[in-house]
Amino acid sequence: MQSILSEHLPRVFSEKLGIELLPIPADGDTADAFHLGFDACYELDLDDQRRLVCVQVKTGERPPDTEQRNQRVRKIQLSNPRAIVLFVAAALSESQRRELRKTCVNYADLEGHIYIWEPGIRIWLEQAAVRKPTKPVRRGGRRPNPFSRRASVVLRALLEAPDRRWGVRELSSETGLSVGYTSDVISELVARKYAASGGEGVSVEDPIRALFDWTRAYRWDQNGIHSFTVAYELDELQSVLDRELARGGIEYALTLLSGVDRVSRHVQHGQTHLYVRPDKLEAALEIVGAKLYGEPAASGGNLHVLDPYYARSAFYGGRRIDNVPVASNVQLFLDLVHYPVRGIEAAAMLLRTSLGRQLHLSREQIRTLITLLGGD
User: Which domain holds residue 45?
Assistant: First the structure.
C-alpha cells in the first residue's frame, strides 16, 4: 500500500494542481529523511521554488501521532529548514481532514484532497476542480495584507471575540475602517482560512494558523524603542510611572514580560516595556526624564517606552489588571514570541492559560503551536 500511494501521489498533484512532484532516491540529501522513517521523498517545483517533500504514508485507522510527527519535523528541518512533511492516505474523510488541519498537519489523499500550509506555500484543495495555490500577500499588492498596520485590527477583533459572528458593517464600525476595505480584509482572511464566512456573519476559523503566520510577519523590535535607566525597583517603578503618566493624561499599556506578569507571573526579570500612543510619545519621554530621572540608555536599561509599530491597533483589546493597563493577550503573545530573554517560554505560558482559554484551544492545539514556534 505504501508504494502504491507514493507512486500515485505525483499524478494527483499534476492532475489536480498542475504541480510537478519529482521522486528523489534514498541517498545524498534525502538520507536523513529515510533514516527518520519517512516512506518517500519528492522535490516540489512551484513558482521557481524547489522544496523537499517528505512523505509519511498512513497505516491503520489512527491518524499520525502528533508528538512523533513533530519530532520528525524538527529533526528533518535541522538539515533542511524548508522541508515539507506530508501525511498521505488513500482517502481521508471530512472529519479526518478537519482534525489534521487543526493540528497543522499537511496532507494529501488519492481522491485529490490536498492541504499544505507552510511559509511561502498555501494550498488547500477540497474539490476535484483545479485550484491554484495562493501565495502569501506581499506589501504593495492589490489584496490587503491581514497583518499590516491598517488591516490587522480586523483579525484582532475576530480573535478578541472568537464566538461572535460579525457583519461587515459591524466590523467596519468596530475597527474604524471603511466598509469596502473591511470587506476586502475579510475576503483575504477567508481565503487564507483564518476566518469563515456564512449567512450569520464572519468569525475566526483557524486561530492557530493565524497566530503562527502572524509571528512570521511581525517582531516586537519593529516597534520604536526608547530605553532608559531609572533608579527604581520593579514594583515601585510601576507605581511612579502610573501616577506620573496619569497626571500627564498619557494612555499606556504594559507589554512583553512586564505585561504578561499581570496575567500570570512566571518569569523573573527586571524590565518594564510599555506602549504609548504616538501622539503622546514626546510627552511621555519628557516625563520619564523629568519626573523619573531616567537616563537614556543606548543599550540595556530597565525602562523601555515603545512607539507602536501597530499605531492603530496595538491598544485594541487592552484591559486593566489590578488597575494597571495591559496590552491584549494577542499583542502580548506576538511581542513575546521573538523576545530574546525567555520570551518563547512566557508566550507558551500565555497560550496555556489566558490566551488559550480566550480562543477555546485544546491542549493538542496549544502543544502544536508551541512546537511550531520552537518551544517545548
Answer: 2-125
